[in-house]
Specification:
Elements lengths: L11 H18 L8 H14 L3 H8 L3 H17 L4 H8 L5 E10 L13 E2 L4 E10 L5 E4 L3 E2 L4 H8 L1 H8 L3 E2 L11 E2 L19 H14 L2 H9 L6 E2 L6 H14 L1
Helix pairs in contact: 1-2, 1-10, 2-4, 3-4, 4-10, 5-7
């Protein structure tokens, strides 16, 4: 199989973080020799996450066997996921911000058993696709603070936020969050846009928003907009654009990517 040199937009700090963790792991295991150095193994793992390179392509490019690629990636993902911040650590960071932006994102998947009906929990009626729901917290500039472990895609954003304890943590720490209307009723710490008022009994139509309410929604959208950068940054890692492994393994992928983003 032919191979060619290539590049990817990943910071050296992220690569060194993983390489150092792999070296420490090898010292812990007292490994005498491996096919690749810790630095090359880190590069292999990052290439898989950033570019979604297949095991066969990575095996050719790094001149190792497919089983070796599998073991190296498995080890790297485990180490990276273990370094991902917890919600408690994320709230400590969020508490130092004027406000944070809370948003849900769907990570698409394709490995679901549709014939048996097991796909239904993963189907998002909003996105019309199978996927996993992750909750993303970003700072006012759109920089990533935290990504939640994934839940089945049919889960609504506000239900997912409650499940992870995000809303309770915001209230306990006094963190103000901006979110879309999917978080209506999330509590006093979460600010959402104004919704259309109740129906007019005479016309049967929703009453339009007032000029003041429209101005409030415009200002809210302007402040919330940078949060989309965090979602875009997350999905710039091609492994998360469509997860082809088991959904049960997605939490490790999300944690690994989150660690590398925060390191960079």
């Amino acid at each position: 199989m032919p191979s060619y040199p290539s590049g990817m937009t990943v910071s050296n700090r992220a690569l060194r973080l993983l390489a150092d963790a792999l070296r420490a792991r090898r010292r812990e295991l007292r490994t005498r020799w491996r096919r690749l150095t810790a630095g090359r193994q880190a590069l292999l793992v990052v290439a898989h996450l950033r570019k979604n390179e297949t095991y066969a392509d990575l095996a050719t490019g790094f001149a190792v066997g497919r089983s070796t690629v599998y073991r190296y990636i498995d080890e790297g993902l485990t180490l990276l996921a273990a370094m991902a911040p917890t919600l408690k650590e994320a709230i400590a960071v969020a508490a130092g911000k004027a406000y944070v932006i809370l948003d849900g994102s769907l990570l698409r998947i394709d490995r679901v058993a549709m014939a048996s009906g097991n796909d239904r929990p993963y189907y998002s009626g909003k996105q019309k696709a199978h996927g996993l729901n992750v909750q993303v917290i970003a700072d006012p500039a759109g920089r990533l603070i935290w990504v939640s472990p994934p839940l089945p895609g049919s889960r609504h954003d506000i239900a997912a936020a409650r499940k992870h304890g995000i809303l309770t943590a915001f209230e306990a720490a006094g963190v103000t969050a901006l979110a879309d209307t999917g978080y209506q009723g999330a509590g006093p710490q979460v600010t959402v846009p104004q919704r259309r008022r109740r129906k007019d009994p005479d016309t049967g139509k929703y009453r339009p928003l007032s000029a003041a309410q429209k101005e409030v929604n415009t200002a809210h959208a302007r402040l919330r907009g940078p949060g989309e950068r965090a979602n875009a940054q997350l999905k710039s890692w091609k492994i998360l654009r469509k997860i082809r492994s088991s959904p049960n393994q997605a939490a490790r992928l999300v944690g690994a990517v989150q660690t590398l983003i925060l390191a960079g």
